[in-house]
Design brief:
Length: 429
């Protein structure tokens, strides 16, 4: 069994990017007396309190049972309580397996502790199940077609057996279970329903997704509002606890107060920099276009192993900061009441000599290395003539080139969805 704390120390202390910090092994590791992790998507942290187990998160519906099985090889005590760090489905989806086990063993159902906004999240997921199935498939490289979710009853995005919170807090609470005191704190960051937990006896913080071994997910282009400034505040509140253990929901745990403080401070500083620079330009009257092409993280953040933009990326965070403070209008008057994309594409194609000419120019720009501009022209060509196989062939080439150099999973997923859409058109031709 790998020494998880030794692995994380080696990554942080040496900057070694060859060691993957995010592992999905379904294996259990014990970090101390009565404290274990199952590395899953996401993890379950299990605490033996002497009066039953407390789980922090429950993993995904597809991995929850396997994670529970791994815990049962370690402890067979009843599950006293579950704490949701937030309501994302990879943190709550496995709760159905836990509840089913309790019922089968004729145990009382575990209490489910969460921020009160988790109820609102669950309601929103049920209202927008088709939308969420689509964007999650796109984000993670799948290919859900609109015909799968429109005019039919799709699979539920939020599984029917997910356990609703039974104990909620608005701004924190304390729960004492057996010999362990769990101090809950609300944090607005990736979500508006996040809870991080302080275990004073172990000097441990359960951070959920507030630290996830990637650049903070404060900019996701397909999801609801994120809160970069509040996220940084939460990280600094954690530092103030002087933890010796940091226990995230994704990625390796981290040990050592100095190491934890450095990681949290550096992450907070990166978010604060993006907020400060974006708001400064907004106060000067800059448009979103100007801000996006001006605000860049300093080079000092490059190569930091827990800030690699493999999932989200700083440019997306800038967009979300702008949206938070400035609304949806990007400052371009033409976008206030825009023409349909098809009309704009047709007009530009007409000026260029046809959609095929636009597509050809996009390929020339790829060869010249201007992938961003190539993407605009390739998409305009498809908007102008959506049934033209030649423009779809060009769009596939353009966005394959964009995907090849993209760093974040979100960019790669969206580019792949565009490629898949054009391949579908060609297959139907």
């Amino acid at each position: 069994m790998a020494d998880l704390l030794e692995l994380s120390a080696r990554i942080i202390d040496t900057g070694d990017l060859t060691i993957p910090p995010n592992r999905v092994t379904q294996e259990l590791s014990e970090l101390g007396e009565g404290l274990a992790i199952v590395e899953s998507f996401s993890h379950i942290w299990a605490v033996d309190t002497g009066d039953g187990l407390v789980f922090v998160d429950t993993s995904h519906v597809n991995s929850g049972q396997a994670a529970l099985d791994a815990i049962r090889a370690w402890r067979t005590d009843r599950v006293h309580s579950i704490v949701y760090t937030h309501g994302h489905i990879d943190h709550v989806g496995g709760s159905g397996a836990i509840m089913a086990e309790a019922a089968a063993n004729e145990h009382d159902a575990p209490a489910v502790i969460a921020h009160e906004a988790v109820h609102d999240r669950f309601a929103r997921y049920r209202e927008t199940t088709g939308w969420n199935l689509t964007i999650n498939a796109r984000q993670f490289g799948g290919n859900v077609k609109r015909t799968d979710v429109v005019g039919a009853t799709p699979n539920a995005f939020l599984p029917d057996d997910v356990a609703a919170p039974t104990v909620t807090h608005e701004d924190g609470m304390t729960a004492v279970v057996g010999d362990t005191t769990f101090e809950m704190h609300n944090a607005t960051g990736e979500t508006d329903d996040h809870t991080w937990i302080w275990d004073a006896d172990r000097k441990a913080i359960y951070v959920g997704d507030l630290f996830m071994w990637n650049f903070p997910n404060a900019g996701n282009p397909q999801k609801v509002q994120r809160f970069a400034g509040d996220w940084a505040t939460a990280l600094r509140d954690m530092i103030a606890k002087e933890p010796e253990l940091m226990l995230p929901a994704h990625g390796l745990p981290v040990g050592g107060n100095a190491r934890i403080a450095e990681a949290l401070d550096t992450s907070a500083s990166a978010l604060e920099y993006l907020v400060r620079e974006t708001v400064t330009l907004m106060n000067e009257g800059a448009t979103l276009d100007t801000i996006l092409h001006t605000v860049k993280l300093p080079d000092t953040y490059e190569g930091i192993p827990y800030l690699v933009p493999n999932y989200d990326e700083p440019a997306f965070v800038v967009r979300n900061i702008y949206r938070l403070y400035g609304g949806w209008w990007d400052g371009d008057p033409a976008n206030l009441h825009p023409a349909p994309k098809s009309a704009l594409g047709a007009e530009v194609a007409s000026l260029a000599g046809g959609a095929s000419a636009l597509a050809q120019r996009a390929l020339e720009l790829v060869a010249a290395g201007d992938l961003a501009l190539a993407g605009h022209l390739a998409q305009m060509a498809v908007d102008a003539e959506p049934a033209n196989p030649a423009v779809h062939e060009a769009r596939i080439e353009v966005f394959a080139a964009r995907r090849a150099v993209a760093t974040s999973l979100m960019s790669k997923g969206i580019y792949k969805s565009v490629i898949n859409a054009s391949k579908d058109v060609l297959a139907d031709d």
